[in-house]
């Protein structure tokens, strides 16, 4: 954290911290609908409503689980490449094989077909808006030529997911994490394993408290990587509103010195 | 027309309101008979309450007393205690079938190791059991909201930092690291070995002098907020019907059977009947009758074992072997260093024993080290020895990360390890001399990360009479009686 820029950003950000309210939430954090609120109210009084609420949650997890099942059979029968391709298309994502320019994606009815590529492996994957989660990622880990991965707006992508991305550490060059509502700085720290990363999009992450500072820290952590989607100044308040903090003292007093 | 009606409505109400205040009160409306009837009704209610089978009593009771009878009493409301409570409730067949009571002496948790720990989780152990426990716990933490979310409440946010652990080995210890690495890989942990040059490339801020090998955890390792985990367990367990009671366990009522185990060697076998709980700030005791007791009192669990006569028998005999868990004080220092390493700082464990991790994004770190066996600090209080940092910790730290030559210690705290003096591993299961007390303690600095899996294991022992998910029989108390330690090499 040698850069004076960081220190400056940090100071501002710390002052800002108290003003920012973190949006936590299983979902995106929007206010629940009248119906949901009514259910929550009733749940205070009746056990049955609780089980109904659980049922709703249970159904949601079932759907996610179903979409992310492991295509072990396909993988064994037709190879990892076909397994991965099949999974991507099944959750309505799209991909491109290495050495080809054609993208494969399902049509509007969800039907798809693709040709096996004789030598190439999957090089680019676009999973924007899909329900991919950590289990689903298991279908892709054999794709060690994967260069570009877009996870824009994936509601099930969280910090644990990012921590597993180390499986692509020898190939991944471009990663798009924009609008992933669950991603926090604790998961972004795990991207340090992706030493080949050249481009990282972190725009619209609601749970990042000081996007500007995080961007600087990420650029410091991955010196060859361009971090986009956040201005360095974003999430920081102007200096006049800043209050003196501990950090201020430290940087002026220059701390202790070991004899 | 509707709109006009609405528009006039407030005015209409405003007109009416003053009239109401002129009305006479309701009470004087009633005649004498109605009043008598009311009195009778109230009396009848009270009488019903006082019938046998109800909990009404003519005497004032201390609020928060534990119930008189329970199925399981858990001593210690730290993370291990609450995790066991949660898993027992989770495994019960019908709702409310088991009455589980958690007894905690300190509602503020001012001395509990859980909240004073560093919150780290790693799979880099040398023993298969420890690796598996930690892997299972990581799985639990990953799905924490499936386990511990309570409807109507905020989801649990552990603030997990996926930064991994980085162990450094010197020339002397490199071969041990390699062995551990293969055990860890075999058990399913995601770890890589780094050579000094790779290390330098990955972490340019580090001085790699003296390092022969390093191992870095890629997945499921990092640190989180222990308080959030404790609270989440507690909130969920309470919502499932676990009783919480603030009081101190000061003794037991038990029955004793004397048996001759060998020629002339008599041993007392005990069975707990009641747990005596003393209420805070009073001399009042409440005996809680129960068939199963769990000792999850952390650093204090050795004392609880002594209450049952464990270790107090004649030397040489089984009852003379003390329960080997005692409090050991460990210091944690919060340092501020604006030029220190950034977001890529892992939980660093140097071969000198010094550890360091980042705390937040503001250039703060926490660091510490375990003292030599011969220099253990006094455990009568939780005061911090600041000299220890200056003399022991700092030069190792500054040697490894030169930026730390210049730093400021901004605060510090101390906590008690539930230290297992025998072999520094958890002690799980029944004691051969006490028929119905399960132990879950002695984790020596890695109890927080193992708590979810340990809770499940103990619940399995109690309800299924054996381990179902992970076989932890190696951590049983037999090894202490037989004097066969199972040593863990990666103790921090
Ligand atoms: C400085 C430090 C750093 C640590 N770092 C880590 C780490 O990075 N990772 C990790 O996994 N672990 C770490 N640990 C270890 C971890 O904190 C403990 O192993 C774990 O918290 C043990 O949990 P527990 O519930 O058994 O004990 P505790 O949290 O100590 O809970 C025991 C509870 O029992 C209560 N109690 C005691 N006696 C009685 C009685 N007679 N009656 C009623 N109640 C009683 C106490 O009040 C206490 O609340 C660390 C510990 C320390 C001290």
Automatic annotation (TrEMBL), chain A:
GO cellular component: SCF ubiquitin ligase complex
Gene3D superfamilies named in the record: Ribonuclease Inhibitor
Alphabetical GO biological process terms: SCF-dependent proteasomal ubiquitin-dependent protein catabolic process
Main function: Required for the assembly of the mitochondrial NADH:ubiquinone oxidoreductase complex (complex I). Involved in the assembly of the distal region of complex I.
Signal sequence, renumbered to the chain: none
Segments of skewed composition (Polar residues): 250-259
Protein name as it appears in the record: Distal membrane-arm assembly complex protein 2
Region (Disordered), start-end ranges: 236-259
Family: Belongs to the ATP synthase subunit s family.
Assembly mode: Interacts with incompletely assembled mitochondrial NADH:ubiquinone oxidoreductase complex (complex I).
From TrEMBL, chain B:
Keyword RNA-binding set for record: no
Matching SUPFAM superfamilies: FAD/NAD(P)-binding domain (SSF51905)
UniProt xrefs under Pfam families: DAO
InterPro entries: FAD-dep_OxRdtase (IPR006076), FAD/NAD-bd_sf (IPR036188)
GO cellular component: cytoplasm; mitochondrial inner membrane
Cofactor needs: FAD
Protein topology in the membrane: Single-pass membrane protein
Cited function: Required for the assembly of the mitochondrial membrane respiratory chain NADH dehydrogenase (Complex I). Involved in mid-late stages of complex I assembly.
Residue ranges of domain FAD dependent oxidoreductase in the record: 71-461
The entry's keywords: Electron transport, FAD, Flavoprotein, Membrane, Mitochondrion, Mitochondrion inner membrane, Oxidoreductase, Respiratory chain, Transmembrane, Transmembrane helix, Transport
Main location as per UniProt: mitochondrion
Protein's recorded name: FAD-dependent oxidoreductase domain-containing protein 1
Record bears the keyword Protein transport: no
Species assigned in the record: Danio rerio (Zebrafish)
Source taxonomy: Eukaryota, Metazoa, Chordata, Craniata, Vertebrata
GO biological process: mitochondrial respiratory chain complex I assembly
GO molecular function annotations of the record: oxidoreductase activity
Subcellular location: Mitochondrion inner membrane
